[in-house]
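Shipment paperwork, digital attachment
Item: protein structure file
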Amino acid sequence: MEPKKIRFVRRGELVSLENVPPERTLLELLREDLGCTGTKEGCGEGDCGACTVVLGEEREGRLAYKAINSCIRLAHSVDGLAVWTVEDIAAADGTLHPAQEAMVQCHGSQCGFCTPGFVMSLFGMYQNHTCQGEAISRALAQEELSGNLCRCTGYRPILDAAQQMAELPAMRVDEAAVLAQLAALRDEAPSSTYLLPKSLPELLALRAQHPQAQVVAGCTDVGLWVTKMHMQFPQVLDVTRVEELRRIEPYENHIAIGAAATLTEAFEALVEQRPQLKTFANRFAGLPVRNSGTLGGNVANGSPIGDSMPLLIALGAHVVLMSARGHRDLPLESFYTGYRKNVLAPDEVVAWIKVPRPTAGETLRAYKISKRYDDDISAVCLVVNATIENGVVAQVRIGAGGVAATPARALQAEAALRGQAWTLEAAQRATAALRAEFQPISDMRASSAYRAEVLGNLMQRFWLESQGLRQINLESFRLEEAVT
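Attachment content:
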């Protein structure tokens, strides 16, 4: 089978490459095939941000920009898109882009290895905020740079640069020209090795025909299999262009999040209904990972330390599985059968996640414990969703991560609370039940004893917060604007 040709727009020109293996990463293609060595390889797992590039895609007649990690993004996934690297954003006469000039003026670089990634995250911010007339606050800059790490400069001058971009002479992308070029790329020949369906019927038909193909979405997990485990895939089925699965649809009692909706889009929808999830959403990896990864992919992968599943379990979410034979709907906690194992048949895909709307009296808290506050994987995740009526716990759902082989529902702790008066004693009983219900492992992130202790402590935190206490953790911290 011949690998598919890749076509994308870069520097205002069409780039066309043939015979690219389906498992080749975008970073490899940029550095090794195109000689774009400005984009750096740091961690190779989407953690450090040195490899950040920006993708552009037509959405509803406009150009949408997303900063993503090129080290774990499969090269074929950018077919039909626009790509910007750090070498592409200066003017033709060499004038630096505001994202670059601001870093120079604010002394935002020392060794410089991470600088290209920071510049591209700033470029994405510039396109999505500054060019739309929106001021970049200190908090917004910190939020959108969370996927980029710096070992030597310190973040203050980089945050300064984010805010200074708007004060520099404007430099705009010719979006009409890029959109016209992207429109010319829409008609493409089918591939036998990298399958990129555009509709749900096409996806289901291809899944039935190629049950052995590796299904991918944003590749934030599969990309690690390539970079860390050196896996190769004779055939890949990419769901990210399936229009039906990119939608987030509102219904009377729930919202349906398509499996190809990015984590950024999915969390925006969840936060719109439950604003208290904003901090938890921001701490789900860094923005480049959320811009690539999908909620459906996170659910299908089923990592026991994936943060979305405990939240969705606590919210009472259902997952809709589809195949050419039909569909089935089941509670998310029933989807998993073991470590990274689930009930998917070979011809099925995860299609939607159905999340119930908030109910009256709902008290929801989502807790993430990790070694690093931003851009890190959980050691323990606990989400408690309780409805308290007249001082009694009428309903409760608790989702836990990092404490079992699968994302889990804490049924024993729920039973200890349901129908009981919401008191300190009830919270303590639930704490004991949580610690007894799971037997977490010890690994590089935390010991078993630590996880069990923290799991119970988080239930105690839920009690304290339900009583009005707020200043007990870093989530209450707000980065103040810089004093000028």
